[in-house]
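Continuing the series of single-chain predictions for the mutant panel. This is the parent chain; the variants come on the following pages.
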Amino acid sequence: MITTLAMKAELALGTIPVLAEKVDNPLKGVSPNLEVFGVKFTNAISLILGGAWALALVVAVFFMIKNGASWAAARQRGMSDDMEDGATGLKRSALAFALIAALGVIVGAILNLIGML
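Parent structure:
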């Protein structure tokens, strides 16, 4: 059974380059652009995305403060289990904040990688 699956996979993968040579790309030269919907739509989308991004940053900061405070309180009381939970939460929320803050760079890198930028 494994050999038949392997043979089918080889046949399927072997036919992809052959099909790609025969089919023309109908979307050659086309790139996504929001300006076709007008300036008001583009500005509205930019405002909505910017607001959502800012809200995500605020939520991440809130959880960083909350987890940092719980870690500090547990440390002051000498409760090692709660200290570990608070420290883990603080690390996760700090990582989430860093990823959200770097979202523009991450999306730009992905678009550059796939050739859309």
